[in-house]
Amino acid sequence: MSVWDSMVGQDHAVDLLKRVVASQGTSRDDMTQSWLFCGPPGSGRSNLARAFAAALVSPDHGMGDEPTSESRQVFAGAHPDVTFLTTEKVTIGIKEVRQLIMVSEQMPSTAPWRVIVIEDVDRMMERTTNVLLKEIEEPADHTVWILCAPSAQDVLSTIRSRTRIVNLAVPTNAAVAGFLRTSLGVDEHQAARAARLAQGHIGVAKMYATDEQVLKDRDELVVGLLEMRRASDAVLLAVRLADQARDQAARDANRQIASLEANFRRINGLRADERVPRQLLGAYHEISGKDELRRRTVRRSRDVLDRGLTTLASVYRDVCVLQNDAESQVGLVNLENRAAITELSVRLDRRGAIERIQQISVARRRIEGNGSQLLDLEALMCNLLV
């Protein structure tokens, strides 16, 4: 399969990058070395960065039908000339960026380029971004920087103006469903439903298609919202959502830590039951210690809550669709709950539906601002009462 096959519904961006990589043989001097890939969560901007990096360091420029050993190394995170900065923390620190800058100055060992990929560059504080600015403006002759963010507006203008921006679209439901069928072997009905509920988010669609508990939690949240009538209902629903976020975050964080520990042992030639040598304990505890687990749990909890808020907003989105007689044009997200949503669209006027979508946006900002998640959710649910 091609390095680009993981991209869903991004033909325009893929065609652009293919032309850029193919032109290196004749006009390498014109190669843009600082890129900013922008797209909403789940659009595949990180996957596009990996595919572009793989194409840049592969002898076939990513044009072959089968991946080269170099591209396989990139996707495994093991290529010596491709560095990824990903974080489960709330922000990316100056120390991490300075280490990247040191790496970027080194000559590539085997590939024509040294490629640096920073996912979620929007998580950088302004002071950290300023450290990166000079490297983005005047990269080393052999280095390509690829930054990823939800939108160009999420990045400081000083960085934005010095990069070539590639905007990704929200994949269509049909494209996402097709990807689930071909890549995961999901049946047609299940793939179509997962794609519709995910609203263009490929990662969430995969989750809905493969994790029954996550899909069940979503269904219960929608039903709970539609049946909510009293303040006590609102508080109980908020508690349920907070508990689900905490439990899922803990499961996911423990899975990630276990995977990192297994990879650490594999790289260092250690068996699963073998004691970690003293000289490696420091590095081992960095990936498996309590502080790392806590950071990953906090970040993952926010991601789960964000998905829950998107689910809540989708109900009022559907209300607006029905109130404006637009179902035949755009369809409903929560099609299984059409009867209850129709009833809500009668009890709630158009202004009320829009105000509730805005309330959900306010709650999202408060939760990202390190407030009390439970209090923010309780306040939100009470504000959503009709």
Topology readout:
Layout: H1 11-22, H2 24-27, E1 34-38, H3 45-57, H4 69-75, E2 82-85, H5 94-104, E3 114-118, H6 126-137, E4 143-149, H7 157-160, E5 164-167, H8 173-184, H9 188-198, H10 202-210, H11 212-226, H12 231-267, H13 278-288, H14 290-323, H15 327-330, H16 338-347, H17 350-368, H18 373-384
Parallel strand pairs: 1-4, 1-5, 2-3, 3-4
Helix pairs in contact: 1-3, 3-4, 5-6, 8-9, 8-10, 9-10, 11-12, 11-14, 12-14, 12-18, 13-14, 14-16, 14-17, 17-18
GO molecular function, one term: DNA-directed DNA polymerase activity
InterPro entries: AAA+_ATPase, DNA_Rep/Repair_Clamp_Loader, P-loop_NTPase
Keywords: Nucleotidyltransferase, Transferase
What does this structure look like?
The protein has 386 residues and is of the alpha/beta class. It has 18 helices and five strands. It folds into three domains: 11-167, Rossmann fold (3-Layer(aba) Sandwich), CATH 3.40.50.300; 172-210; 231-384, no CATH class. Strands 2-3-4-1-5 form a five-stranded parallel β-sheet, sandwiched between helices.
